[in-house]
């Protein structure tokens, strides 16, 4: 069945990203401020509400769900939630994005629960730099988590790297080498201006074209038309067929025309576009209509007609979206 969810520009919505918590054990410099206030627990959707929404969206034709956060693996009960969502009839794949800190313990239970693919963030291979970027993270723990994920039998594992000049841009080739050695994919992401993080984003900005040029110093690249249902553009390495390299380029290659997704924030706001504040309060609707799905679905259908045509991210000037990435279902 094709998805019944359409926006006002004729785009079909068949991909939902759900933030299961705004909390995190890291404080990455591009994602959070050093001092963060997290949502009171009663404002966060319960596991039951998350499941109910997943079921409603899948019933409307959503085929892919990504669980994210915050750090999804610090949410109590995450494995059970994955098991229930993965079993929804009609869902093609349940995938998850993690910082890797809890994977040593949770990789196998997640794979057994039906999570098909995993994205793991990895911004540096140097422990001191890794600590500086994540503010609290332990590189060795994340590397052990990646190793455990490889043993656990996911269909694919992809690394995500936000590239910043002066912090990790000089590690791009080493990170590609790390992915190649292990048969992993890797995506390089341009930093997005979400939330006020205490510095101007343009200082460290490194475009995907610059990243590509850095990789070409070490590897011959082959363009690829592959799609993973997300915003990345892919290339392959001529001499290492297994690894795909992705570029997520919100600034330099706008990807809005083919947008197929919406995001659910941890407090149950349906975000129609990462780059705008347009949203629908699903938590209120769910709590007012604890049994029947009709009113919730009707409101979702109407809200989709307000989905903006594109984001308007700019590198300079005022922060346009005050929401931090951890609160956005990034
Ligand atoms: N905690 C998990 C993690 O770090 O993978 C999942 C949530 S995190 C918000 C999802 C992805 O968003 C990560 O790959 C992270 O690097 C990326 N991210 C966070 N803030 C960003 C920003 N301002 N610009 C671009 N990517 C960002
Ligand atoms: Fe946490 Fe992920 Fe944000 Fe880093 S990017 S602070 S790991 S939510």
From TrEMBL:
It is an enzyme of class 4 (lyase). Its cofactor is [4Fe-4S] cluster. [4Fe-4S] cluster 1 binds at residues 24, 28, 31. It holds the Pfam family Radical_SAM. S-adenosyl-L-methionine binds at residues 30, 70, 121, 192. GTP binds at residues 17, 66, 97, 158, 261-263. Keywords: 4Fe-4S, GTP-binding, Iron, Iron-sulfur, Lyase, Metal-binding, Molybdenum cofactor biosynthesis, Nucleotide-binding, S-adenosyl-L-methionine. Binds 2 [4Fe-4S] clusters. Binds 1 [4Fe-4S] cluster coordinated with 3 cysteines and an exchangeable S-adenosyl-L-methionine and 1 [4Fe-4S] cluster coordinated with 3 cysteines and the GTP-derived substrate. Its EC number is 4.1.99.22. It catalyses: GTP + AH2 + S-adenosyl-L-methionine = (8S)-3',8-cyclo-7,8-dihydroguanosine 5'-triphosphate + 5'-deoxyadenosine + L-methionine + A + H(+). [4Fe-4S] cluster 2 binds at residues 256, 259, 273. Gene3D superfamilies: Aldolase class I. Pathway: Cofactor biosynthesis; molybdopterin biosynthesis. Residues 8-231 form the Radical SAM core domain. Monomer and homodimer. Catalyzes the cyclization of GTP to (8S)-3',8-cyclo-7,8-dihydroguanosine 5'-triphosphate. Belongs to the radical SAM superfamily. MoaA family. HAMAP family: MoaA_B (MF_01225_B). This is GTP 3',8-cyclase. It comes from Azotobacter bryophylli. The gene is moaA.
């Amino acid at each position: 069945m094709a998805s019944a969810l359409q926006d006002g520009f004729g785009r079909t919505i068949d991909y939902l990203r759900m933030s299961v918590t705004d909390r995190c054990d890291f404080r990455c410099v591009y994602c959070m401020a050093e001092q963060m206030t997290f949502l009171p627990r009663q404002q966060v959707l319960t596991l039951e509400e998350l499941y109910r929404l997943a079921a409603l969206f899948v019933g409307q034709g959503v085929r892919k769900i990504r669980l994210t956060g915050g750090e999804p693996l610090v949410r109590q009960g995450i494995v059970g939630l994955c098991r229930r969502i993965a079993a929804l009839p009609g869902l093609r794949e349940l995938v998850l994005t993690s910082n890797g800190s809890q994977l040593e313990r949770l990789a196998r239970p997640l794979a057994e629960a039906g999570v098909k693919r995993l994205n793991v963030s990895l911004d540096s291979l140097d422990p001191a730099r890794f600590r500086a970027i994540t503010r609290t993270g332990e590189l060795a723990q994340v590397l052990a988590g990646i190793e455990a994920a490889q043993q656990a039998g996911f269909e694919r594992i992809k690394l995500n790297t936000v590239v910043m000049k002066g912090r990790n841009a000089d590690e791009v080739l080493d990170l590609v080498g790390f992915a190649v050695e292990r048969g992993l994919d890797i995506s390089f992401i341009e930093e997005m201006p979400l939330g006020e993080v205490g510095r101007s984003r343009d200082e460290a900005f490194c475009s995907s074209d610059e990243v590509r040029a850095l990789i070409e110093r070490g590897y011959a690249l082959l363009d690829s038309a592959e799609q993973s249902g997300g915003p990345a553009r892919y290339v392959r390495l001529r001499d290492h067929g297994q690894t795909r390299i992705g570029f997520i380029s919100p600034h330099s290659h706008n990807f809005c025309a083919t947008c197929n997704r919406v995001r659910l924030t941890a407090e149950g706001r349906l975000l129609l576009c990462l780059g705008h504040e347009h949203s629908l309060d699903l938590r209120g609707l769910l709590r007012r209509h604890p049994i029947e799905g009709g009113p919730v679905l009707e409101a979702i259908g109407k809200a989709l007609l307000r989905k903006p045509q594109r984001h308007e991210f700019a590198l300079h000037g005022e922060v346009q979206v005050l929401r931090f990435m951890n609160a956005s279902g990034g």
